[in-house]
Amino acid sequence: MSHICVASFSFLIPLTLLYSAVISDAQKLNNRPIIGVLAQEVYSPSPGKNSYIAASYVKYLESAGARVVPVMINRTEEEYTILFKSLNGILFPGGEVSISSSGYAKAAAIFYKLALEANLKGDYFPVWGTCLGLEALTVLTSGKSLLSPTNTTGVSLSLNFTEESKDSRMFKDFPEDLMTSLANEAITENSHQWSVTTEDFNGDENLKKFYRVLSTNTDGQTEFVSTIEAYDFPIYGTQWHPEKNAFEWTKANIPHSPAAIKTTFYMAQFLVNEAKKSLHKFPSRDEELNALIYNYQPTYTGWKSAFEQKYYFD
Ligand SMILES: *[C@@H]1O[C@H](CO)[C@@H](O)[C@H](O)[C@H]1NC(C)=O
Ligand SMILES: *[C@@H]1O[C@H](CO)[C@@H](O)[C@H](O)[C@H]1NC(C)=O
Ligand SMILES: *[C@@H]1O[C@H](CO)[C@@H](O)[C@H](O)[C@H]1NC(C)=O
C-alpha cells in the first residue's frame, strides 16, 4: 500500500480504495472492448494531414480482439472526458513529438489524470505507453523529464528481466518458452534516441514508488528501464515496440521470428484483456460506429516512412 505517490496532482489518494481499483470489476468482463489510440502531429502538416496514427498499433489491438477509436489531438478537456467514458483503455504510441508541449502530450496528460481518478473509484481503465508513450508516462508520473540519450535507434534486444517481473501482471500468463525467448533472443525492437536510465528512474521517488520495473536494457554503456507496470494502477509501458514484430517491415532490424511474432500477440492480448475489465461504453450505437477507426482509410507509406501504413487526420 505504500507504493503510491502522485506528485503532479493535488488530490489525496484514499488508500482503502486502491485494491478495489485493481480488482473489483475483474469478475465482470466486457468482451467487446474498444481501445483509444492517441494521434500525434505530423512532421510537416499539409491539407488533410495534420496528425496521424501508425496503422500497426491498430492491427496490433485488433489482432487480440479489440476495436480501435482514434483519439484526435487538440480537443478540449470536456471532449476528452466524454470520450474517456466511452473507451475501455488507451494506448499512447511511439513517435517523435514533444512529451511536454505537443497536442499528443496534452491529451495524454488529460487521459492519465482521468484514468487515475477513475481507477481510484474502482472504475477500471488501462493506460499503455509504447516508446514515446512510456517516456510520456514517466513525465506524467514524476512531474519532470528524466530522459538521457542512448544509442538505441534501430536495435533489437533481449530483455533483462528483473526479479520483480516474476510477480508481474503483464508477464504472469506468458508461456515459459516465450519468456525464455524474450530473455535470450533479440526480439524486442527499439527505435528511440532517449531513455530513462535505471539510475535516474530509481533516483526519482515518484517513479520508483509508482512503477515496478519489469525489465532493463543497455546500449552497451547506459542501462535504461525497458518495461514497467504501475503497482496499484493498470498503467503499463514498454520502451520497445511489441506491435512492430508482426506489422512493420520497413527496417532490417525488426524481428519476425516465430518467437518475435508470438511476443506481439501475447503483449496485445494482455492489454486487450485489461481493457475487457473496463465497463465504459458509448452512449449509443451510432456514436460508437461513428468513432471507430473503420471510418478512416490507412495510406501506404512504407516507401518513405518507418511505418508501412498510416492513418492521417485533419
Ligand atoms: C494543435 O495545436 C497547436 C497549437 O496548440 C498547433 O500548433 C497545431 O498545428 C495543432 N495541430 C493540429 C493537428 O490541429
Ligand atoms: C551504436 O550502436 C551500434 C550497434 O547497434 C554500433 O555499431 C555503433 O558503433 C554505436 N555508436 C556509438 C556512438 O556508440
Ligand atoms: C541485467 O541487469 C542486472 C541488474 O541491473 C545487471 O547486473 C546485469 O549486468 C544485466 N545484464 C545484462 C546482460 O545487461
Record keyword descriptors for this entry.
Pept_C26_g-glut_hydrolase; Class_I_gatase-like; hydrolase; binds 2-acetamido-2-deoxy-beta-D-glucopyranose; Peptidase_C26; 11 helices; 314 residues; disordered N terminus; 4-stranded antiparallel beta sheet; alpha/beta; secreted
**Tally of contiguous helical segments:** 11
The main pleated sheet reads as:
8 strands, mixed
Shape: globular
Q: What small molecules does this complex bind?
A: 2-acetamido-2-deoxy-beta-D-glucopyranose
Q: Which residues sit in consecutive blocks of at least 5 with pLDDT less than 50?
A: 1-21
What structural category characterises the helix and strand content? alpha/beta
Q: Write down how many β-strands occur, each being a DSSP E stretch of 2 or more residues.
A: 14
CATH architecture: 3-Layer(aba) Sandwich
CATH topology: Rossmann fold
Q: For this structure, what is the CATH class?
A: Alpha Beta
Radius of gyration: 18 Å
- Give the overall pLDDT as a whole number: 92
CATH superfamily: Class I glutamine amidotransferase (GATase) domain
